Amino acid sequence: MDDELRTKAVDAFIEATNTADPERRATLLSRALTDDIVFWGPLGRSVGRKAVEDFITEVIQRHPSGSCLMVRTTRVDAPDEWARYGWRYESAAGEPLLSGMDIVHITADGDIDEIVVFAGPLT
């Protein structure tokens, strides 16, 4: 599988988390995720692109700190169909609020069909 395909899928997902425009978000998610994606997030397991979109809208976009951004902090490391990347969630002023790493499974077509979110440092 092409590293560029993996990176494009991850970056489209991150861009979707950062856009306030619901139509743009839906378009980006349709480029990055399968319809039946399994999302293991901080609130538990959910299935489907709509569930991921709802998480972005209800949790990320409505953060108490106001307008925030998700930033990829590492390259997308993908030895095969599984990939990982580091990220940081930051305030509009650039202040780090949370960081972590996501593990994603990417299909041969370059779409993410599973995301496992690891937020915060391991202690």
From TrEMBL:
**SnoaL-like domain: residues covered:** 10-114
Query: Short name of one Pfam family for this protein?
Result: SnoaL_2
What the entry lists under InterPro entries is as follows: NTF2-like_dom_sf, SnoaL-like
Q: What is this protein called?
A: SnoaL-like domain-containing protein
User: Which organism is this entry from?
Assistant: Streptosporangium minutum
